[in-house]
């Protein structure tokens, strides 16, 4: 079973990553010129957080796995949104 502290820390990481990625998504939708560094950093942070969630799921109990699954879905949805927005803006991934 994952410890309470490790779940709390991961939950905070997920929230921070989502906030950062959503801000980059909003910024890129308002501007024609993307801040490539921040945009790609947001994608990298989302991927790293996704991997951290997957790692934590190996030691999680049932309710924790369910919570981690919901977090993973949020991360995937935001990744997809960023990638689609980047492809519409001419970005190459």
Structural features, described:
It comes from Neobacillus mesonae. InterPro entries: Uncharacterised_YtzC (IPR019668). The chain has 93 residues and is mostly helical. The chain has one domain (4-88). 82% of the residues lie in helices and 0% in strands. It is built from 3 helices and no strands. It has helices at 4-30, 36-57, 62-88. α1 packs antiparallel against α2 and α1 (4-30) packs parallel to α3.
Radius of gyration equals 14 Å
Q: Determine the strand fraction and express it as a percent band.
A: under 5%
Gross morphology is elongated
What is the tally of helical segments?
A: 3
The average pLDDT score comes to 88
Written as H for each helix and E for each strand, in order along the chain, the element string is HHH
Percent in helix: over 70%
* Terminal residue distance: 37 Å
Ranges with pLDDT <50 over ≥5 residues?
none
Structural class: mainly alpha
The counted number of beta strands is 0
Largest sheet: none
The domain tally reads 1
Which structural traits does this protein have?
93 residues, mainly alpha, elongated, 3 helices, 0% strand
Show the helix and strand layout.
Layout lengths: L3 H27 L5 H22 L4 H27 L5
Pfam family, one: DUF2524
Protein name: DUF2524 domain-containing protein
